Amino acid sequence: MTPAPFNIAAVVQRGRLGFEALLLAASLRRADPGFRGRLLLMEPQPGRLWPDDPRLPEGGLRERLTALGAEFVPFESRIFGEPYAYGNKIEGLAALPDEPFLFLDTDTLITGAVSALPCDFDRPAASMRREGTWPQIELYGPGYAETWGALYRRYGLDFQASLDLSWPDEYWQRYMYFNAGWFFHKSPRAFGSRFLEYATDIHKNRPPELVCQELWPWLDQIALPLVIASFGGGRPGPELAGLDRDVTCHYRSLPLLYARESDAAVAMLEAVAGDKENRRILRDWPQVKQMVYQNRGRKARALFDRNDLPRREQMIRNALKREGLWLR
Predict the structure, then answer these.
(1) Domain segments of the chain as ranges
(2) How far apart are CA 156 and CA 150, in angstroms?
(3) What is the spatial distance between Cα 211 and Cα 262, in angstroms, rounded to a whole number?
(4) How is residue 49 annotated by DSSP?
(5) Origin, by domain of life (predicted)?
(6) Whole-angstrom distance, CA of residue 31 vs CA of residue 247
(7) Are 26 and 68 in contact (CB under 8 A)?
(8) Mean pLDDT of the residues in the chain
(9) Beta 179-185 vs 125-127: how paired, if at all?
(10) At a CB cut-off of 8 Å and minimum separation 6, what does 171 contact?
(11) I need a labelling partner for 175 at 20 to 30 A (CA). Which of 25, 54, 276, 316 fits?
(12) Burial state string for 24-33 with b = 16 or more CB within 10 A and e = fewer than 16
């Protein structure tokens, strides 16, 4: 049975995210021309939390996104804004049409038929492509169980049900933790409202067990598993393995894409960047100009064996920086 259509949501604003949105939109149209949903670009509007206008300016880039079928969805930043731009993915959800959605970080390429993914929108899930970035355990402070348990108790959630018992006690992967690079649910308004509620509460009124923890930039990823648990969701099953693999590629930066991602992801990047309608716009973005058009990405790719990559992303970044191949 063909999965029901759903919308894809991402954030767009002035600067890098505008160019990333073009790669996202162009790769979607190339990889999945039969996609029946809407591509919705959540765009923060000027206000007290933005010292400068965050909107994507009128002009060629905005026009090209529209030509590729993207729709701009304005929203007001009431809580986060420029001081915590990751909050855009939280606050923007309320402005979306209340239909099943898949949120993707803007630095994502579509490399397969995303419309064929069997997402159960009644049971939300999120990306497992993450490292143990939070919490950072202090020598004499609360451990993983005490830290996460305090949050689950605060919101009346079942902490024990969230545990992956295949991992040992006090090892970070035992505790439900996601990368916020993708997540989905049937209602962006309900999901976004709870996401904003939890994130704001954690930020302004953290439990005592979190007193020694840094919350930024991880606030969205701290709140996300709690939101997913509150709607009866959890870790994604094997049927969603295409996300972060054969269907989508959350590359984070183009040097990292060349260093570690699949041949299919590189081919998709170079195909959409080579399209003449995209090229005339993307050549103004240093990442594409240097990595793709000036072939520095191929130099970055030659530094690494994709079958034997360093275990931590920071090690890849450091190697790229040593070779003068890091851009963000």
Answers:
(1) 7-129+176-240, 252-322
(2) 10
(3) 40
(4) T
(5) Bacteria
(6) 9
(7) yes
(8) 97
(9) antiparallel
(10) 144
(11) 316
(12) bbbbbbbbbe
Judged by DSSP in three states, 108 sits in: strand
State the burial class of residue 125 (Cβ atoms within 10 Å of its Cβ: 0-12, 13-18, 19+): buried
Cα separation of 45 and 42, whole Å? 10
Helix (H) or strand (E) holding 287: helix 286-288
Please say whether the beta carbons of 205 and 184 come within 8 A.
no
For 224-250, write each residue's pLDDT tens digit.
999 999 999 999 999 999 999 999 999
Quickly state the pLDDT bin for 1 (edges 50, 70, 90): low
- Asked whether the whole model's pTM tops 0.85, one would answer yes
What angle is formed at CA 35 by the lines to CA 236 and CA 179, rounded to 5 degrees?
Answer: 30
Q: Which helix (H) or strand (E) covers residue 266, if one does? A: helix 263-274
Structure tokens at 281: 């716009």
Question: Tokens at residue 246, please?
Answer: 């054969």
Q: How far apart (Å, rounded) are the C-alpha atoms in residues 201 and 275?
A: 45
Contact 126, 104 (CB under 8 A): no
Amino acid at 290: Q
> E strands within 111-241?
125-127, 179-185
- How far apart CA 111 and CA 245 sit, in angstroms, is 9
Q: Distance between alpha carbon 205 and the CA centroid of its chain, in Å?
A: 25
Pairing of strands 179-185, 101-104: antiparallel
Q: Average pLDDT for residues 69-98, to the nearest whole number?
A: 98
CATH number listed for the domain at residues 7-129+176-240:
3.90.550.10
For residue range 204-230, list pLDDT tens digits in order. 999 999 999 999 999 999 999 999 999
Burial class (CB in 10 A: 0-12, 13-18, 19+), 267: exposed
Q: Which of 161, 107, 117 shows the shortest CA–CA distance to 2? A: 117
C-alpha torsion 94→99→102→108, nearest 10: -70
Q: How far apart are CA 213 and CA 221, in angstroms?
A: 13
